[in-house]
Amino acid sequence: MFSRAQQNRIIVACLGGWTMDAFDFFVTAFALAGIARDFSTSLTTMTWAMSLPLATRIIGALVVGGLADTVGRKRVLVGNMLAFTLCELGACTAPSLPVFLMFRGLFGVVMGGEWGVCTAYALDNIPPARRGFVSGLLQGGYPMGYLLAAVLYGLSYDMMGWRGMYAVGVAVASAIVILRLSLPAPAPATGVARAERVDFRSGMRGHWSLLGFAVLFMSAGATFSHATQDLYPTLMRLERQMSVHQVATIAVAYNMGAVAGCICGGTLSQRFGRLRVVVRAAMAILCVLPFWMLSSGFIATLLSAVAMQFLVMCVYGVMPVYLNELAPQSIRSTFAGFVYQIGFLLTSANATLQAWLATHYVLPYSRVLAGTVLLSVMVFIFLLLRNPGAARGAPATAH
């Protein structure tokens, strides 16, 4: 086992990668209307810039995760962040919509590989007693990235535009590449011996029902997570007539709540168990949902959004350790990443479908998004309660 200082460096390097993935995704979300205007296309068409990465993430989960399980996680983590830097640069300098969308699709491959490898590498190299907290912290990288995108949008968008925001991502990602180059190589005892490594299909032998449950579970989770996030800035701007400054302020507040939710969910799961924490948080989402949908003023919107993101991320704070504990030992990087990303693949057209429903049927965005959240959370809870044995995973202190 590595020293505490080495463990912390690993956590920071992995946290930074997931943070930058979310930063890139939500830079696009905040700047969607501006990008559509610059490329002379509709907002509905432009939502493919968000749907494409969700669709291609599954490729990264399989390819990058498979490489990590075969050639080593540290090497793959460095290469994946380097690829992220190049995708960010490509989006920043794209001369046309097709080129921009191409780089968004490639970014999805990189993003898909990042989560599974990062969580497996980090959780493999820390003591079992820390895994709940670190799980929440790692998943907290997602709202941290959203938070950074919101701050940059609020402070600099009018000055630097969307291309400048992507340029900031290039600079930060380059620093993470350098940090990852300095990471220690995993100790032999923490990884799967080379002779024991198997491909994904062989590793899944005897575990297909577990995979089916995990995929459905993750698809429902991906639906309610992104329904509360992706088009919410658009809802605030178009439906609630809020200024750029107000949207950015609310986004900063609810992402601070989301970071707290991730850490809270992961930490509580170490004490009370993964299943109990996830089910309670999902039920609380249903209680907050009416207020989140109906709030209209600045303060009411801010408070309901903070409460919603805290609870959503309580659920997600358990995901890294939960999926890694469910995974077969020999394919942990691939399994966890595959399950996490296929959930987003199966729901990748949600933002486009929701935008179409709102515009085609002249429905309020709040009603469309709230209906999506309601249905998906109910499915999510049903799956957990119907499969308590599978959902419980390993004991809280086990790997």
UniProtKB/TrEMBL annotation:
GO terms for cellular component: plasma membrane. The keyword Kinase does not apply. Residues 10-388 form the Major facilitator superfamily (MFS) profile domain. It is found in: Membrane. CDD domains: MFS_SV2_like. Pfam families: MFS_1 (PF07690). Keywords: Membrane, Transmembrane, Transmembrane helix. InterPro entries: MFS (IPR011701), MFS_dom (IPR020846), MFS_trans_sf (IPR036259). PROSITE patterns: MFS. Its main location: membrane. It is a multi-pass membrane protein. One of its GO terms (molecular function) is carboxylic acid transmembrane transporter activity. The keyword Hydrolase does not apply. The chain crosses the membrane at residues 12-36, 48-68, 77-97, 103-123, 132-153, 165-187, 208-227, 247-268, 275-293, 299-323, 335-356, 368-385. This is MFS transporter. It comes from Gluconacetobacter asukensis.
